[in-house]
């Protein structure tokens, strides 16, 4: 229940600190006194969006705090799931800064508006006048039936199944689209793949073949040059090898005279060994050099093929061509696998559809079973409110479509009087009839929900006299199980309250503020008498007010 409300610098309220009690609370006040401001402040606490117009003093921040006693409402799981500190008396604070920024806190932990709205749904139902027309909305009608049918768990299963079903359908649609696109590209991809596979590409072969081509293209010149080098190296009298041997022999003779000569001798010996290796390799290379036009042509053709493929695929290396080859192989293979995938998905979707249909049928059956229970309870309450001949009928039909809350189409039909045909609720119900039906609905829902608090904002619009008296009785009965507020202009309802608060405005100079105060018994008598007769309160009105309070 809402225990305390503190408001600073909001609209016409400079500062307000008010405690509320359990049971049935009445809020009255003249039009424009600030009742809507109270609801606006509560709306901010429950997650409504705010702006700078909310600030009375634009240079100071607005702070609204609401204290809720939630010990008996099994909300600890919500706090755990949302990583919030639980407290039996939970404090929700909303701040609006002069910059326009807004902050929200639950037990001093910062939260976003979405989380605040989710928590608010467990705490308060604020029923404003315009919400009476919710009854004409099909989704709201389903919610009514689901509350009576206790469909919460089965609806949770349905939504989970629907999500999985839609994911399967999306996957199938993607696979079918891929298949359609790949069919168009299949022949071309297969051709490109075959072309690359025929080339038998190997990493690094382009560089090797380019070197081989260069070598084969210059065989004669290379052989001539190698022969010349070998001749210089191996000439019997003046060849490099012979001269190096001579140098080595001379140094060997003096190597024992000093370490310096010995090192020079060793270095020349190393040079001689290295030069011998060079001449041997040149000799072998010369022997292997063959003028082979056929090999030259093969290398040239392979290189030209590589260059052509690189140009076609807009790359510069064999490695990139090999990567493209793998991608093409995957595409061709994927196209072949898609038929299998599509077949598997089709089977899964059929199974998911059957499961979804079974769950939707369960929801529908439970709704149909709830219809007589709900209509009986509502018609009983309508009879108490002066509508003994009112009749409601919920038509529940299952469709081929999958909605977020099942497969049902629901239509609420209404007849207010004997001898009149049923018509859709929004077309045949008057404003006063809508108000009485909605109050009856809320009273029935109070039996099936564990909501701590409900606020009726002038639900008595369009009714008066004895009918309003009966509406007050219904709200009074609801307050035995939950905290009920009624913002009203009717003295008959005001007299039913356990506590009575008055909203009023005061003006000092150029400053106008709204205030809220708890009325004493005598003040209640005067307030209700004023509601009966206006500012000039008569003794008759006072007597009538006392009677209403009894």
From TrEMBL:
Which ranges carry the RecF/RecN/SMC N-terminal domain?
1-509
Coiled-coil intervals in this record?
158-216, 324-369
CDD domains per UniProt: ABC_RecN (cd03241)
Determine if DNA repair is one of this entry's keywords: yes
Record keywords, A-Z: ATP-binding, Coiled coil, DNA damage, DNA repair, Nucleotide-binding
Superkingdom as given in the UniProt entry: Bacteria
Q: Which InterPro entries match?
A: DNA_recomb/repair_RecN (IPR004604), P-loop_NTPase (IPR027417), RecF/RecN/SMC_N (IPR003395)
Report the sequence similarity comment from the record: Belongs to the RecN family.
The free-text function statement in the UniProt record for this protein reads: May be involved in recombinational repair of damaged DNA.
Alphabetical list of PANTHER family matching this protein: DNA REPAIR PROTEIN RECN
Please identify the protein, giving its name as recorded: DNA repair protein RecN
Please give the organism: Flavobacterium suaedae
């Amino acid at each position: 229940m809402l225990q305390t409300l503190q408001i600073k610098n909001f609209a016409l309220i400079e500062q307000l600190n008010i405690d509320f009690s359990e049971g049935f609370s009445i809020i009255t006040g003249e039009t424009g006194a600030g009742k809507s401001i109270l609801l606006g402040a509560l709306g901010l606490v429950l997650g409504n969006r705010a702006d700078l117009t909310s600030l009375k003093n634009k240079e100071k921040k607005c702070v609204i705090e609401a204290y809720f006693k939630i010990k008996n409402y099994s909300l600890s799981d919500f706090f755990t799931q949302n990583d919030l500190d639980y407290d039996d008396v939970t404090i929700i604070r909303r701040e609006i800064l002069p910059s326009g920024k807004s902050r929200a806190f639950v037990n001093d932990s910062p939260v976003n508006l979405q989380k605040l709205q989710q928590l608010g749904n467990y705490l308060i139902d604020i029923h404003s006048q315009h919400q009476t027309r919710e009854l004409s909305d099909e989704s709201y009608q389903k919610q009514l039936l689901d509350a009576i049918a206790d469909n919460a768990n089965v609806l949770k299963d349905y939504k989970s199944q629907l999500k999985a079903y839609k994911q399967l359908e999306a996957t199938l649609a993607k696979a079918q689209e891929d298949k359609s696109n790949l069919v168009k590209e299949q022949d071309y991809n297969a051709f490109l793949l075959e072309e690359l596979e025929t080339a038998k590409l190997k990493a690094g072969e382009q560089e090797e073949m380019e070197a081989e081509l260069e070598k084969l293209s210059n065989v004669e010149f290379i052989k001539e040059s190698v022969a010349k080098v070998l001749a210089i190296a191996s000439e019997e009298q003046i060849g490099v090898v012979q001269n190096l041997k001579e140098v080595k022999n001379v140094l060997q003779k003096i190597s024992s005279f000093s370490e310096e000569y010995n090192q020079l001798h060793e270095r020349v010996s190393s040079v001689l060994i290295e030069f011998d290796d060079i001449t041997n390799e040149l000799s072998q290379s010369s022997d292997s050099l063959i003028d082979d036009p056929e090999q030259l042509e093969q290398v040239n053709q392979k290189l030209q093929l590589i260059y052509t493929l690189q140009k076609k695929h807009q790359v510069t290396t064999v490695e990139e061509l090999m990567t493209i080859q793998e991608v093409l192989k995957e595409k061709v293979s994927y196209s072949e696998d898609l038929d299998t995938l599509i077949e598997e998905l089709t089977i899964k979707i059929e199974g998911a559809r059957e499961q979804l249909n079974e769950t939707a049928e369960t929801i529908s059956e439970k709704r149909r079973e709830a219809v007589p229970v709900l209509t009986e309870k509502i018609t009983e309450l309508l009879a108490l409110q002066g509508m003994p001949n009112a009749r409601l009928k919920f038509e529940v039909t299952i469709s081929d479509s999958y909605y977020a809350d099942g497969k049902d189409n629901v239509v609420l039909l209404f007849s207010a009087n004997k001898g009149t045909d049923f018509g859709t609720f929004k077309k045949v119900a008057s404003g006063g009839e809508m108000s009485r039906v909605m109050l009856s609905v809320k009273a029935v829902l109070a039996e099936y929900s564990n909501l701590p608090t409900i606020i009726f904002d002038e639900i008595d619009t369009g009714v008066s006299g004895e009918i309003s008296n009966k509406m007050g009785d219904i709200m009074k009965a609801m307050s035995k199980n939950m905290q009920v507020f009624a913002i009203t202009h009717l003295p008959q309802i005001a007299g039913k309250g356990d506590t009575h608060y008055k909203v009023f405005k005061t003006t000092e100079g150029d400053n106008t503020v709204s205030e809220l105060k708890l009325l004493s018994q005598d003040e209640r008598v005067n307030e209700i008498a004023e509601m009966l007769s206006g500012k000039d309160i008569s003794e008759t009105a006072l007597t009538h007010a006392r009677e209403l309070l009894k």
